[in-house]
Design a protein that fits this description.
Layout: H1 4-22, E1 23-25, H2 31-40, E2 48-52, E3 55-58, H3 62-82, H4 89-100, H5 103-106, H6 110-116, H7 120-124, H8 127-143
Antiparallel strand pairs: 1-3, 2-3
Helix pairs in contact: 1-3, 4-6, 4-8
């Protein structure tokens, strides 16, 4: 089974490959500047749609991006469901994200759970998630 970090890196690589030729960013506050940038890309406002944070994609590529992100979510969810006791993929998920959200300094799981899309109630009601979080926290505290 793949670890969370391995899956995250694989997904990032797939996204980067997709985005390299299909996503572009325009950061400007004026309509004239925006139109100028579109011309540089050989586009007009009718051809594109926003994906947020200054990012744009051609309308014809929007469905492909949607399918990619849905597949990534599904792969992650399947890996979580396959980890019946939380000691594999789930633990690796919490371990990486706890470190990424500086749990070792704050001892606060809230940012990690928010980033992963969980509430504490969801964690407590799922034995595998609860065990995975507990194991990750114990591993971090032991390393301190």
């Amino acid at each position: 089974m793949m670890t969370y970090e391995e899956m995250k890196n694989k997904h990032q690589e797939e996204y980067d490959t997709f985005a390299k030729d299909k996503i572009f960013y325009i950061f400007t506050s004026s309509k004239e500047e925006f139109e100028k940038k579109l011309k540089e890309y050989g586009l007009n406002g009718e051809d594109i749609c926003s994906i947020g944070y200054g990012g744009f994609i051609k309308k014809k590529d929007k469905e492909e991006l949607k399918n990619l992100t849905q597949r990534h979510r599904k792969e992650k969810q399947e890996a979580i469901e396959q980890d019946k006791d939380g000691s594999g993929f789930i633990k690796s998920m919490f371990l990486l994200e706890l470190y990424n959200h500086e749990f070792a300094y704050t001892y606060d799981v809230e940012d990690t759970l928010n980033d992963l899309g969980y509430t504490m109630e969801q964690i407590n009601s799922n034995p595998a998630l609860k065990n995975g979080l507990d194991l990750a926290i114990k591993a971090i505290i032991k390393d301190d």
